[in-house]
Automatic annotation (TrEMBL):
GO terms for molecular function: nucleic acid binding. It comes from the Eukaryota. GO terms for cellular component: nuclear body. It comes from Rhizopus microsporus ATCC 52813. This is DUF4187 domain-containing protein. Residues 115-136, 323-346 are annotated as: Disordered.
Length: 360
């Protein structure tokens, strides 16, 4: 009887028949053993690159076939179905632009600084249940991938004070279920809204809601960017990059009003009031005010590189502020990549236009 190990050595598995990406070494051995002619390492490298491209295309096609009829997928990628969500996001950003510029003019962001501050060991006095206030939004604990956004909106629109609905990115580790936030106008009786909406049925699914206390909103530890972000060279680079980014995001709004320009003008005014300020202070002031602008208006965290459809989703992935670590305060656990926190369970495709084209 033939030894199985010898059989494997004689007849290696074709990587194209496997449902996982094989490492280069395994592909190299397979190619060398099965090729009818002599091939060099450069040729094998080209073949491996081609193999990886084919594998990625096959994975994308399989993912598309498995999810193309699910509501979350249609709402995110379908050329027609995604328009309503996109237009709602644009209108919300325009509203945030007006609110931000009004606050900017009043000087509310003049003192913003994203240098990491020493942690305080003293905790504030906790309010009693009678004194405690709730946020003006309800959390939908889970939204199945088969539930349409429009049906949840229809349910919410019947409640007085309803403002908008925000849904998170689908989470692959939870079978592409999402989290939702039903947001209300300030002054709405949130407990009454909770009683009206909790345990309501959408199709065959029962909606379960939660109330969030305002005092519990910042119990999470903010993320920290690497200490290199404190250097003058990195600050200059970040300032140049964030201006390019702001220009691109503003182009999506088709607004004549240039929010970035107004932020820069305000930063220059603040800097002028500190005539003895050094170059680092000036760079940080401009950068930090623009970081605040991107987050509050365009729902974008600069240091994470994460853009969201809602502030609720952005705060779930990365709570404000995302600070710069100081050399003496940094630790190996301070800096987390966006795949390690916040976005590790969120489906993101590196080529959104390619997914959309599969519908055509």
């Amino acid at each position: 009887m033939m030894n199985p190990q010898l059989a494997w050595a004689r007849f290696p598995m074709d990587p194209n028949q496997l449902d996982y990406l094989v490492p280069y070494k395994q592909f190299y051995e397979y190619t060398k053993r099965t090729s009818n002619r002599r091939i060099d390492d450069e040729d094998v490298q080209k073949r491996y690159s081609h193999y990886k491209e084919k594998f990625a295309a096959r994975q994308l096609s399989q993912f598309f076939s498995a999810n193309k009829d699910k509501q979350w997928f249609l709402e995110k990628y379908h050329p027609t179905h995604s328009r309503a969500r996109y237009e709602e996001m644009i209108q919300r950003r325009k509203k945030y632009m007006q609110e931000f510029l009004a606050s900017l003019e009043q000087g509310e962001f003049d003192d913003v600084c994203f240098d990491k501050k020493p942690e305080s060991s003293t905790a504030g006095e906790q309010p009693t249940d009678e004194e405690e206030e709730y946020e003006s939004r309800l959390v939908i604990k889970t939204v199945p991938p088969t539930i349409a956004r429009e049906k949840i909106l229809e349910m919410c629109s019947k409640v007085e004070g309803f403002d908008y609905l925000a849904l998170s990115e689908p989470q692959p580790s939870r079978k592409f279920h999402r989290i939702g936030w039903i947001c209300f106008q300030q002054g709405t009786d949130i407990k009454k809204a909770f009683d009206q909406l909790d345990n309501q049925k959408v199709d065959d699914f029962v909606i379960h809601l939660a109330l969030n206390r305002k005092s519990a909103a910042q119990n999470r530890t903010p993320r920290t960017a690497p200490e290199i972000t404190q250097s003058a060279d990195r600050l200059k680079k970040d300032l140049d990059q964030i201006k390019e980014l702001a220009t691109a995001l503003e182009a999506m709004l088709s607004e004549e009003e240039n929010g970035m320009k107004l932020v820069e003008q305000r930063a220059d005014k603040v800097i002028a009031e500190h005539s003895d300020a050094d170059e680092i202070y000036k760079l940080k002031k401009k950068l930090d005010m623009l970081i605040t602008y991107l987050r509050h208006v365009h729902m974008y965290c600069y240091y994470c590189g994460v853009e969201c459809d809602s502030l609720e989703e952005l705060n779930r992935k990365c709570c404000e502020p995302h600070c710069r670590a100081s050399p003496e305060a940094s630790s190996p656990s301070d800096s987390k990549s966006k795949n390690e926190k916040g976005g590790e369970n969120d489906f993101e495709c590196s080529n959104l236009s390619l997914i959309g084209s599969l519908f055509l």
